[in-house]
């Protein structure tokens, strides 16, 4: 034992560590079948799981049902990803006696699984970023034993999901110990500190994410920690876009802010519009026409925090309510909210930015009215250290790249791209497509590592590490590096004899 774990946790970590070599050695096709088996089992149990989720989180049946489907799609996507093998980045430099710097040995490089990983579940995505969500799918696909720390907001759902996944993994023949679920913050921290754990993943608040990231970094042997934390996801709307489709922008914005009671990391927290534009009135009209029903927040703690944050924003000088919204508490302490949209001038926003700029986790967003001639590109570094997304709404003429303001828009796009992980045009940041090219990450505090993503096939790369083999006999090479390439993975080969021509084309 390590001396810091309870007997129960010690048994779990020891089992995960013991399973690591065997799990890393499983054939990609076998791991793929196991992931698909979990996906199929989750969909088969959808009705029961969704019912538990609705009771624990207050999220709707439609939302949770769709999230189960998304979770299954993620698992199947990673099944194909691990068999394809491109993520291994296999590189082969054959021996070269005529190398430009002298004799080159045979060097071959690939990626191997890290070992046991702990994943801290999210509160707001009880399927897609929880027990068998995207991080878990990537960890298992990489060949790493997985320990999930369940979120306290949905413990019964976590247990039920874990039971479904455990049965499917065992039936698929995966080694015993490749998957465990634990409960409690202290237990999660203790496991994160254990030297047998080789990486951590997290989705949640900036404060907790920073605490866990610091623990991972300050271990005697630091480990990578991939946290997805906070984001306000700024939106910029041009005058021409408002003139062209104000009503569509207003309704889309309101839907994006209010969906799932605004408890989404990609919710647009700020929208910058020209002062005096028609958009604020269009937003108010859309809210009145839509009659958005109240939605329960995830738990009483989140509801109280939202109430406090909402009051702080409404009381800030210069802020006026476009859509007043509200929040009420029932006899169980659960909070029920309707969307609040406020507006403020850029001048008052700057004066009150200490109270306004932080994320409001719930159905609230701020319209910032910018005077004519405002350098929008300069607003990104002025207000935002890092975000998951940034959005531009432009007109069809501006989209052609031939409008008079094209250079200003290019500067804005460059400024947004410098501080976010995903740049959107004429859409809304909520609703993250599960697809190979997706990027769900960004500079701090959006994530703890701005070169990674928690959605898309690149997410698997977080849980493998590069290893080079020099002059290794074929029998001792990983399959991905053998000349016969039995795994049939992409191999980047640098042929002997080419080094003396490097750079010649640029002379």
Automatic annotation (TrEMBL):
Leader sequence segment: none
Oxidoreductase listed as a keyword: yes
Domain Aldehyde dehydrogenase, chain residue ranges per copy: 8-379
Region (Disordered): 487-507
Keywords from the UniProt entry: Oxidoreductase
InterPro entries: Ald_DH/histidinol_DH (IPR016161), Ald_DH_N (IPR016162), Aldehyde_DH_dom (IPR015590), Aldehyde_DH_Superfamily (IPR050740), ALDH_KGSADH (IPR044151)
Protein name per UniProt: Aldehyde dehydrogenase (NADP(+))
GO function terms (MF aspect): oxidoreductase activity, acting on the aldehyde or oxo group of donors, NAD or NADP as acceptor
The UniProt record lists the keyword Oxidoreductase: yes
Superkingdom of origin organism: Bacteria
């Amino acid at each position: 034992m390590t001396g810091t774990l309870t007997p129960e946790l010690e048994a779990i970590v020891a089992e995960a560590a013991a399973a690591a070599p065997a799990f890393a050695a499983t054939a990609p096709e076998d791991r793929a079948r196991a992931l698909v088996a979990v996906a199929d089992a989750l969909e088969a149990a959808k009705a029961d799981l969704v019912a538990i989720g609705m009771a624990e989180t207050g999220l709707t049946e439609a939302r949770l049902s769709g999230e189960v489907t998304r979770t299954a799609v993620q698992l199947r996507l990673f099944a194909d990803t691990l068999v394809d093998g491109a993520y291994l980045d296999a590189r082969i430099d054959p021996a070269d006696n005529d190398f430009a710097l002298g004799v080159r040995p045979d060097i071959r490089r690939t990626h191997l699984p890290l070992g046991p990983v702990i994943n801290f579940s999210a509160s707001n995505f009880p399927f897609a970023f929880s027990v068998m969500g995207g991080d878990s799918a990537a960890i298992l696909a990489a060949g790493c034993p997985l320990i999930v720390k369940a979120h306290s907001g949905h413990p019964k759902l976590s247990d039920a999901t874990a039971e479904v996944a455990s049965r499917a993994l065992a039936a698929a023949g995966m080694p015993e110990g490749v998957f465990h679920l634990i409960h409690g913050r202290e237990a999660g921290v203790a496991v994160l500190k254990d030297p047998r754990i080789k990486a951590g993943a997290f989705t949640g608040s900036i404060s907790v994410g920073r605490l866990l990231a610091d623990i991972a970094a300050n271990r005697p042997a630091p480990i990578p920690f991939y946290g997805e934390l906070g984001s306000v996801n700024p939106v910029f709307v041009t005058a021409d876009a408002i003139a062209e489709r104000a009503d569509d922008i207003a309704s889309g914005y309101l839907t994006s802010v209010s969906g799932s009671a605004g408890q989404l990391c990609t919710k647009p927290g700020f929208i910058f519009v020209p002062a005096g534009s028609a958009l604020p009135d269009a937003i108010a009209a859309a809210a009145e026409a839509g009659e958005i029903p109240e939605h329960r927040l995830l738990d009483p703690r989140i509801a109280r925090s939202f109430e406090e944050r909402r009051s702080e924003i409404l009381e800030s000088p210069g802020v006026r309510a476009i859509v007043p919204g509200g929040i009420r508490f029932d006899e169980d302490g659960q909070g029920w909210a309707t969307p609040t949209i406020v507006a403020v001038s850029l001048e008052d926003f700057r004066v009150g930015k200490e109270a306004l700029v932080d994320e409001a986790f719930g159905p609230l967003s701020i319209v910032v009215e910018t005077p004519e001639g405002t350098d929008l590109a300069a607003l990104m570094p002025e207000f935002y250290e890092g975000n998951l997304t940034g959005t531009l709404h432009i007109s069809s003429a501006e989209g052609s790249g031939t409008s008079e303001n094209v250079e200003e828009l290019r500067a804005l796009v460059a400024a947004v791209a410098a501080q976010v992980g995903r740049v959107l045009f004429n859409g809304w940041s909520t609703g993250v497509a599960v697809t190979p090219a997706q990027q769900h990450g960004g500079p701090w505090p959006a994530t703890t590592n701005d070169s990674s993503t928690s959605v898309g096939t690149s997410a698997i790369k977080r849980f493998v590490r590069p290893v080079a083999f020099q002059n290794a006999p074929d029998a001792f090479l990983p399959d991905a590096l053998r000349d016969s390439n039995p795994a049939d993975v992409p191999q980047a080969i640098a042929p002997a004899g080419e080094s003396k021509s490097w750079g010649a084309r640029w002379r």
